[in-house]
Every structure is written in C-alpha cells, then in structure tokens.
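Example 4.3 (complexes with small molecules)
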Amino acid sequence: ASYNLFLLPGDGIGPEVMKEVEAIIAWFNAEGIARFEVDRGLVGGSAYDAHGQAISEADMAKAMASDAVLFGAVGGPKWDKVPYDVRPEAGLLRLRKDLGLFANLRPAICYPALADASSLKREVVEGLDILIVRELTGGVYFGEPKTITDLGNGQKRGIDTQVYETYEIERIARVAFDLAKTRRNKVSSAEKRNVMKTGVLWNEIVTRIHAAEYPGVQLEHVLADNCAMQLVRWPKQYDVIVTDNLFGDVLSDVAAMLTGSLGMLPSASLGAPDAKTGRRKSLYEPVHGSAPDIAGTGAANPIAMIASFGMALRYSLGLGDWADKLDQAIAAVLAQGIRTKDIAGSQPANATTTQMGAAILGELKKL
Ligand code: NAI
Ligand code: MG
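Answer. The structure with NAI bound is encoded below.
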C-alpha cells in the first residue's frame, strides 16, 4: 500500500532530528519495503517568518489529507513576542483541533542500556514498557465556564470546568482496549471517582465498554493519585493506562521520567477512524520542544523523533513488524554505548545527531 506522509519539521532542533527520520524513510522506499509519498511543510516560527501564520491553510489541507503527520518541534526565543494567535504553539494546537486528535499515546520504555540513568533503581525500571493513553481534546483544559472574575472586594475567583460526555469516554476507552489487545492485554483506568462526578461517569462508561466489547481484556480501576504513586513504586504492574486530559498530562510526565532523557520520548496522537477507509488521522511527535539551547550544535538526540516515526509505522502505516525492528535497532545502538550528550551521563558524548541517526539506520539494515 502507498501512504502519504506530511512532514512538519518546525523550528530549532525539529529539522535536525527530522532529517534522521527522512533518511530512514528514504531507505524504506529504496528497499521497496514501503511506498511513502513524502511532502513537507512549515509550522511554528518558520511558518510565521514565511507567511505570518503558525501554519498556512495550504499546509493544513495537506495535513488533513495525509495518512500521518510527522511533527518536529516549534518555538524559540526569536518568536517570544509574536501576536498570541500566531505564536508557534498555535500551529500545533490547530493541527490537534482540526485533525480531531483526541487520543494521545505516550509510551514509557526503558532500554536496558539506560536503566542506570533512571532516578529509580535498575530492577524497578529495567524492561519497563507501558503506554499511557491520555484523552486530549476534552476535560478541564477546555470545559466552560473558564474564567477569572473580580469579586470587587480585593478577591478574585478562578473557574475551570471539567466536562466529559459519554462519547468522549467511549472512544478513548476503545482506543485503550484495542491497544491493550496488541500488547499485554491489560487496561488500568485512572480517575478520581471518590471526589469527582466526571470520575464516576468515566468509571461507569469504561466498565460498560469493557463488558460489552472487550470482556477478554483485563480491566482494573485505579484512583489517579494512587496511580502516580504506583508508577514510581512499581511501574511494571501496568500495561495500558487510560485517563483524562489533566491526569494524563501529569501521569505521562511522571512515567516519562522513569526512563531517562526528554530526547528519548516519542508520542502519537490519533483521531477517529475515517468512515470510508478506516484510517485514523494521526500526528507523531517527540515529547521534547525545539531546544534552542542546543540547536545548530549537533547535540540533539534524534531517538525521540525516530521512535515517533516507529509509532507511525505501528499505528498508521501497517508496518508493526518494522516498528519492532526499529525499536531493536535503537536498543542495539544504545547497547553499543553510542550516546548523544543528553544520555551520556558523566561520560562525554560520542555521537552527534547525524551519527546517532546513521547508527540506528545501520542496525536497521542488518535486521
Ligand atoms: P525543550 O524540550 O525544548 O528543552 C528542554 C531541555 O531538554 C533543554 O535543555 C534541551 O536542550 C533538552 N532537550 C530537549 N530535546 C532534546 C533532544 N532531542 N536531545 C537532547 N536534548 C534535548 O523545552 P524548553 O526548553 O522548555 O522549550 C524550548 C522551546 O520549545 C520553547 O519555545 C517551547 O515553547 C518549545 N516547546 C515546543 C514543544 C513542541 O513543539 N511540542 C514542546 C515543548 C516546548
Ligand atoms: Mg505535560
């Protein structure tokens, strides 16, 4: 099958790490493993410089028509003072909104070669492979009313509103159960039903979807605060964790730090399946930002971006076996002691962005 990939490298180290993914894509095409049609666009500060918007309508249309968007990173001091609605992040927010990306997938994988870099003990993190599924378009970040009111007596009142509707919980639950079936078949649903009505509803709907559609998957309910504790105590008890926007934001950052550097962490965001083709709109991006402090120095670790492409292979491009191989190639390179600065610990770095990318592609070619 042929797939359209739309690349939005963005700003700072975004284009530097994207270049390493482009080399891998070119190899897939050259070997005839896949037929990827690649197009490129501008997002963030680079788009603002070119046409005064964080993403152009033409590039939005290409993103909408693609099978997967690969996104680098946006932002940097150069654009700190641009008008709010065309600031670099507005490009990413527009993409998330228009593509309807309601499911954010954040894996936390601990490569054995980096287990000692974790702030936790080796036995707690070695072999860790969990996936946090965060609801991304609802909840307290978007619910109305959302206001600060002046009460007139020197006091103000801030209000955020947590809102979830049945369909929003149903669809994120289905994503989590479907993913669990391809993994270790377990879903842990995190909410706070003890103090929140949305938690009661979340629990009720996840339970119903499970009983009706996924009785073969193991389901447990966990209070979100306890989940945070358990992630630090014994994270390997989890397989897939499904949770709302706010808890997911926090829990995924906790899980991320179990495994080491920001330069290692990929993510995927998925929309609803297309009625005709069944393909989901999707965007793949590293968790890190544009890292202006190291941009242009060759110090950026491309693994987060490469692993994000690996998630695209798995979830959008029908090449799950190649996603596994890409993970193996990354593990092999790390086992050989090849390190960019962010994962070198007390040792000096022995690889630039390009050298790390080339080493991973070199290992992939052997598999
Ligand atoms: P950041 O993630 O860009 O950098 C944080 C620290 O981690 C820096 O010291 C950086 O050098 C390091 N780092 C990040 N990625 C790395 C990699 N691949 N390899 C090696 N080291 C890496 O976050 P920061 O500094 O808070 O923000 C910088 C800019 O990026 C800001 O303009 C911010 O708004 C933007 N940003 C964009 C995001 C996105 O595009 N999704 C996400 C987060 C921040
Ligand atoms: Mg966060």
